[in-house]
Amino acid sequence: MNTDFLCGTALFNGIKKEEINGLLKCLNAFTKKYGKGEYICRCGDTAENIGLVLSGAVIIKNDDFWGNQSVLAHIAAGQVFAESYALIKNQPLLVDAVAASKTEVLFINGGKINSPCGNLCPCHKKITDNLLRISALKNVRLSRRILYTSSKTIRGRLMSFLSDEAREQGSRKITIPFDRQQLADYLNVERSALCAQLSKMQKDGILEYHKNSFMLKTQ
Amino acid sequence: MNTDFLCGTALFNGIKKEEINGLLKCLNAFTKKYGKGEYICRCGDTAENIGLVLSGAVIIKNDDFWGNQSVLAHIAAGQVFAESYALIKNQPLLVDAVAASKTEVLFINGGKINSPCGNLCPCHKKITDNLLRISALKNVRLSRRILYTSSKTIRGRLMSFLSDEAREQGSRKITIPFDRQQLADYLNVERSALCAQLSKMQKDGILEYHKNSFMLKTQ
DNA sequence: CAAAATATGTTGTTAAAACAACAAAACGGA
DNA sequence: TCCGTTTTGTTGTTTTAACAACATATTTTG
Fold first, then answer.
1. At A11, phi and psi to the nearest 5?
2. Are A140 and B64 within 8 A, CB to CB?
3. A168-207 b/e with 16+ CB inside 10 Å = b?
């Protein structure tokens, strides 16, 4: 097991290299390899394990009753998936996890995290804290996206998104980490319609922009 | 302090009445009362405390740069708020918390949860586990809502929502926990447009419904 | 039960976004 | 610098949802 890699992940953050192997044993961890397109877990399964992507990538997707498919997330190496489900009992998966390419996954038993190895070892506690942080951060990110997409107009979505960015960056002059296509996907709108709306907002004098630099204006 | 009430909350679940007072002390807990409309915390603050609503209710809201306001959540008695922010360092609040009525809030230091009282007391661990469960559950709920609202059409949103309900209820005949207005708000669409779309879907033969009972049909 | 209140469904109009197709600008090597 | 590529912006058309106003059904309650 590549302990260096693991120590660099958010899940094992703060845990020493030499502690890893003991910890993995006590968490019932095991690894498994998947070919491209292979299912890692399926909708309806009861996820007992947290998945940590060691190499490759995982796609989280959902098929509805009539067969329409939608991709919910891409999980890169070093990131975890299915953690929310593994930590709640009796909550079957509502999504599928599929290997996006040749992928290796480390599985960690979710129950073992809640009820540790008898002796409350300190690095066990670290995992819990790390998970709590990962989960809280994800929460903030999800809540934000819901906020930004709650307006029914593209202009409304842009205004709430840009406002928060300005707040975060502490200035009304901001740079965003998306190109137009990514921003459109994030806000759940059409790219060309987004461009058109931005240009209208500039004409209306509520903002100015160039590429991904924006300047919000009070009138 | 009403220990019976606290034991019934998700945050203090599994903790014994007689343990509560000691625990509260070790978590630096304190209570505060607010009048209707009073701000509990403001956007930009660094939330150090988890808030637990003891009585009344709290509204989580957001104002954008240009003054548009939107309500993100209503927190009822027994539920927590600001927990995600309190658990992550250096993440200033992007929302305001306002008392919806005369409200009393119990605050618990987020840092104290991560670095406990020296002796790793077992009920301290319970709080962490409870928080992890609360956070994971919230995650699942938020992810779901994002999934359901990711389609650009009302029909698409309905199909993904109803599919999941059918999966959860283990049948293609389901009952939903919303009336039309609530469902429309949840899916972020107009009520009357929702009604119209439902009726069109019935005409198209992909479902049948009466009030909040639905029957999904394969063709 | 009848009246009032609430919830659901229908329809026509208007506003907005999706979509498509293309123009212009910016970028990145060769 | 020039050419190919990618990104961004523009415009017209079509689709869809919002909106408004009202009809019908259902529930509540005096």
1. -70, -40
2. no
3. eeeebebebeeeeeebbebbbbeeeebeebbeebbeeebb
Residues of A in Cβ contact (< 8 Å) with B149? 146, 149, 188
Strands B39-41 and B96-99: antiparallel
The answer to whether A122 and B31 have CB atoms below 8 angstroms apart is: no
Instruction: State the Cα–Cα distance between residues A173 and A170, nearest whole angstrom.
Output: 9
Closest CA to B151 of B197, B196, B200, B192: B197
**Cβ contact B150–A70 (<8 Å):** yes
pLDDT digits (tens, 9 = 90+) for B119-169: 556 777 889 889 999 999 999 999 999 999 999 999 999 999 999 999 999
The closest of A49, A68, A52, A64 to A2, measured between CA atoms, is: A52
The answer, yes or no, to whether residue B35 has pLDDT greater than 80, is yes
pTM above 0.85, yes or no: yes
- What CA–CA distance (Å, rounded) separates B180 from B195? 7
For residue range A70-109, list pLDDT tens digits in order. Answer: 889 999 999 999 999 999 988 889 999 999 999 999 999 9
Q: Angle at Cα B215 formed by Cα B211 and Cα B216, nearest 5°?
A: 135
Measured between CB atoms, does B203 come within 8 Å of chain A?
no
